[in-house]
Amino acid sequence: MATTLEQLRFDNTYARLPAGFGARVHPSPFPDAKLVSVNPAALKLLDLTPEEARRPEFVAAMGGEAPLPGMEPFAMVYAGHQFGVYVPRLGDGRALLLGEVRNAAGEKWDLHLKGGGPTPFSRGGDGRAVLRSTIREYLCGEALHGLGIPTTRGLGILGSQAPVYRETVETGAMLVRMAPSHVRFGTFEFFHYTEQREHVATLADHVIAEHFPHLAGQEGRYARFYTEVVERTARLMAQWQAVGFAHGVMNTDNMSILGLTLDYGPFGFLDDFEPGFICNHSDDRGRYAFDQQPRIGLWNLACLGEALLTLISEDEARAALATYQPAFNAHFMDRMRAKLGLREARDEDRELVSDLFARMAEAPVDYTRFFRALDSDARPVRDMFPAPEGFDAWAGRYRARLAAEGSVDAERHARMARVNPRYVLRNWVAQEAISRAEAGDFSLVDRLLGVLSDPFAEHPDAESYAAAPPAWGRHLEVSCSS
Ligand code: AMP
Ligand code: MG
User: Fold this and answer.
1) What's the pLDDT tens digit per position in 198-244?
2) Burial grade of 125 (CB within 10 A; 0-12, 13-18, 19 or more)
3) Which residues are part of the catalytic machinery?
4) Which ligand is nearest to the CA of 76?
5) Residue 11 pairs with which residues in a beta bridge?
6) What burial class does residue 285 get, using C-beta atoms within 10 Å of its C-beta: 0-12 exposed, 13-18 middle, 19+ buried?
C-alpha cells in the first residue's frame, strides 16, 4: 500500500525515555543537500514510492531541515570498548535518530540521519560524513541484506558540494539509514559504568518490549534476553565468516543489540582468502582481523554481560556466554555445508572445511569466485591453484563425500548457486563507484545497489564487477576517518 510522505506516522519512543538517554538536537544539514541516490527496496519498507522520494519535502524531512510531525531528532548516548579500551562517553556524534516510523505491515523502523551536523556527543568532531564512506555504508548494507545477513539499511544518500576536512579535503554527504533499533552493547555499558542501575533496567525493558516481546513480563527475562543476544551475535559472526566479510571496527559501540551489522567503516570483503586479512588500515595489531571476529564477538558479549550484572547473576551471564561457541560452530558449519552443497551433517565435515581453507589460504585463491565456481567438474577451481596437486587430494575427498550422500550434480549446483554469491562489494568496486560519484555521476552507485541486492543472479551488464581486483585495487587502504 503506497503512502505519501505526509501520511507516515512518526513517533520517537526512545526520545521519551528518561532524561539521560541522550539529547534532542536540531540537525544542521548541508544547505544544498539533494537526493543523489535512493534505495527502492528500503522505500518500500516505508510504503513510499520512488516518486515520493523525488519531492523536495523528502529531502527536507529526511535531511533534518524540516522534520515531519512526530519526528524528534535525538542523539543517543552510549559508551564502548574501543580496541579493548573502555571509553566512558561516546554517543551519536554525527548521527541522529530522526524518529521511529511504523509501516502498513506494523513494523517499526528507526530512521537515522548520519552526517547531519554536531551533537552534544561530537567530542570536537564536525558531525559530518564524507561521500566516500556514505556510499560504502549505503552499498554494503544492501550487499549484506542481499546475502541474507541482518544489517542496517540505507534509505538514500543526500549529496552536497560542501567540503569536509579529513586527511584530505573531501566531499560531504548525509546518509539516511534504517534499522529496527540502533541500541548498541555500548548503550548498556554507558548506564552500567555511570552507575545508573535503574537506567540499565529501563533500557533493557524498552528493548525487550520493542524487540523481544515474547520475553516481556516473563520470569528470568533479563537472562533470557542476554542469551538471545548471544545467539544472534554468534549467528551474525558465522554469517560474516561464511561470506568473507570483515567489519573492521568491532568496538562494543558498533555492536547491535539485535545482532545486526552496524556502523560500516573500513570494512572489507575478502578477495583472496587470507585468514589474517586486516581491512582497517588503523588496526596495526590486527585485533579485528578477519579470523579474529568470532573471538571478538565473544569478547564483546562478555562486556555486555558485565554491563548487565545488576540484572542477571554472574552464573547466568556465564551460562549464556557458554552457549556462544557451540552456536557459532553450528551456524558456521551449516553455512559451509550449504556452500559446499552438502545436505547431510557428518563428523568429518569440519576437517573437510578446515583442510579446504588451509589450501585456499596457501594458494591463495579468490574466496567468492572459488565457491561460485566449485562443482564436481573440478577444472575451473583447480586452475585457481598455482600448485593444484594439493587441491586434487581435497577434491577427491569432496567427491567421495558427495557420493556418500548420493548428491545429484544438477540439483546441487542449482542449490549452491543460491548460497554462493556471484557479487560481493569488493573494495575496488566500491572505489569505482565512489570515484565516479565524486565526479557527479551516481549511475554506478544505483546500478551496484541493484546488483548487490540480488547477488546470486547473473547480471550480464555488470559482469566485470564480479571479477577479482585489478592490480590497483588489490590493497586499497581504508581508514577509520570517514
Ligand atoms: P565510529 O568509529 O564511526 O563508530 O565512531 C566512534 C565515535 O566517534 C561515535 O561516537 C561517533 O559518533 C563519533 N564520531 C565519528 N566521526 C565523527 C565526526 N565526524 N564528528 C563527530 N563525531 C564523530
Ligand atoms: Mg560507531
Assistant:
1) 999 999 999 999 999 999 999 999 999 999 999 999 999 999 999 99
2) exposed
3) 253
4) 1
5) 100
6) exposed
